[in-house]
Amino acid sequence: MKKSYVGVIGVEVMGRNLALNMESRGYQVSVFNRTGEKTKVFMEGDAKGKNIVGTYELKEFVDSLESPKRVMLMVKEGKPVDEFIEKLLQFLKKGDLIIDGGNSFFKDTIRRNTYLNEKGVMFIGTGVSGGEEGALKGPAIMPGGQKEAYLLVEKLFKDICAKAYDGEACVDYIGPDGAGHFVKTTHNGIEYGDMQLIGEVVWFFKNALQMTGEEIAEVLKKWNAKDDILRSYLIEIAADSMKEKRHGTNDFLVDKVADITRMKGTGTWTVGSALELLVPVPTIAASIFAREMSQDKDLRLEVSKVLKFPKKDFSKEKKELIEIAHDALYIAKISSYAQGMALLQAASKKYDFKLNYGKIAKGWREGCIIRAQFLDDITKEYEKNPELPNLLMAPKFAKFVNENITKLTRFIEVAHQAAVPALAMTGAFNYILQLASPIMISAQVSALQRDFFGAHGYFIVGGPKNPEIEKNKEGKMREFHTEWMLPGRPEREITK
Ligand code: NBP
Questions:
Q1: Residue 184 is a catalytic residue
Q2: pLDDT tens sequence across 48-61
Q3: 326 Cα–ligand 1 center, Å
Q4: For the range 407-411, what are the long-range contacts, defined as Cβ-Cβ under 8 Å and sequence gap of 24 or more?
Q5: Spacing, Cα 62 to ligand 1 middle (Å)
């Protein structure tokens, strides 16, 4: 029997749709699932009559593949991945390849890569984005691992992945070991931020401007028009869902759906990594906090009986405020992506991922949830200057922010007067504000407090008009401590 080009383990939503996608591009695919019954259902259903080989023993699965063997795991992240790797090692040889296409934590991927490398088996950890539809029709793929491992699947990935409007494949080699999964995790964090920002705008429309679901849908539809700076998949589906009536009723689904958002954890990893790498991601973090707050419905029902705020009505300024919201959302999006990109930069430095930010943004243009016109602009800015210290400094974005920042200020002000929380919008605004502050007075105060109670030291700047930090002859920042408990409170320089 002819051997399969590739094998997929896991026939849940992602695995079975990826297998169908591969088969539709001319590849013979073998499949295996821990619970054989699921394989049987797949083989007798969607896979029937297709060039897909159903297998029920792991050895049979591996034997059915041509060499070098390409095994793609599409199983739940964590232990199942490690368990399959162990079992597969009994049958794989040097030069074979395991690909983990699930949402794995990048440090696990680094560990697995090292472990398998010692055994001569190559390993790719790859983000596969776009959910069920993406898996079937073309996902964005973010592979990390050995370059020679990538070359073994480059053609396959290029054939099955999404293609952007200019025909470019939404896959590229991301970098070594955990690079692909780190980028996918960051993508998910950015996705959380995008969703929260759009949610806050819709809340603003409903509560500050008293707009109906249909009106909101019309506005969002315009924002998704060709060449609009906000054009994106998430705006498109938000517009669509605003119009939706609950099946069999006359109620708008948006008025009936419970205000609870769950999460699977990749956004939390993004924020965890950001904390570890000392990269501020306030918009992304706010979106996690907002999801967390959404979970405790009982508490919110209780607190809302005790705390009540005035809610100013701004519906008379609807037209003007809709325009303001448009540009405010765009600025917040720039800020949020700047945070995500800064996280990628820090991780690239720490883990030597050698990430290419322009290419990463390019690869997100189709086949993933954050696909948007805006990503093209990000790519162009990084192509002009790959060493951009922060995305907000890209001339195109800096110009827009400088000209329109007061709209974000106004949005936040109106939102708060109408008792609409704007966690992510505020986070985006304050990120810009702090980043653009040559002197952060709050940090000056904290530095003083830390030195006062803990003798932690502080640095010295020239003064309000000279924000540069004083350095010694070797170029090192001079550090001082005030003896707060001694009479006269003398200052001494700390020399370590
Ligand atoms: P799930 O994440 O629901 O995983 C189901 C698969 O994992 C089944 O094959 C199941 O086998 C297997 N599995 C489990 Br659960 N526990 C196992 C264990 N202890 N040992 C061995 N196998 C085990 O499937 P999915 O939604 O298709 O997602 C697959 C991967 O892709 C995940 O990492 C997910 O995070 C990621 N992802 C999902 C989406 C999405 O939209 N769903 C999007 C992007 C990425 P069984 O059938 O025998 O229980």
A1: yes
A2: 999 999 999 999 99
A3: 38
A4: 407/324, 407/327, 407/328, 407/331, 408/327, 408/328, 408/331, 408/332, 408/432, 410/321, 410/324, 410/328, 411/204, 411/321, 411/324, 411/325, 411/328
A5: 20
Predicted confidence band at 496 (pLDDT cuts at 50, 70, 90)? confident
CA of 59 to the centre of ligand 1 (A): 21
Q: Whose CA is nearest to atom 14 of ligand 1?
A: 76
What phi and psi, each to the nearest 5 degrees, are found at residue 154?
-55, -45
Cβ–ligand 1 contact at 12 (below 6 Å): yes
| pLDDT at residue 407 in the model | 98
265 lines ligand 1 (CB under 6 A): no
Q: Which atom of ligand 1 is found nearest the CA of 33?
A: 9
C-alpha to C-alpha distance for 436 and 223, rounded to whole angstroms: 28
CATH 3.40.50.720 in the chain is located at 6-177
Residue from 17, 58, 76, 181 whose mutation best tests the ligand 1 pocket (most atoms within 8 A of CB): 76
First-to-last C-alpha distance (Å) of the chain:
72
* 6-177, CATH topology level: Rossmann fold (3.40.50)
- Between the CA of 103 and the centroid of ligand 1 the distance, in Å, is 9
Sheet holding 479-482, edge to edge: 458-459, 479-482, 491-494
> Which part of the chain has CATH 1.10.1040.10?
185-435
Give the pLDDT confidence score for residue 465 in this predicted structure. Answer: 81
CATH numeric code, 185-435: 1.10.1040.10
Contacts of 401 (CB under 8 A, 6+ apart): 331, 334, 392, 432
pLDDT at 421 over 90: yes
Q: Is the CB of 33 under 6 A from ligand 1?
A: yes
Ligand 1 near 34 CB (within 6 A)? yes
Q: Indicate yes or no: pTM above 0.70.
A: yes
What is the tens place of the pLDDT at every residue in 328-364?
999 999 999 999 999 999 999 999 999 999 999 999 9
Peptide bond into 68 cis (omega under 30): yes
Q: Is 376 in the pocket of ligand 1 (CB under 6 A)?
A: no
* Percentages (nearest 5) of helix, strand, coil residues in the chain: 55, 10, 35
- Provide the token pair at 351: 């883990």
Candidates 23, 191, 200, 366; catalytic one: 191
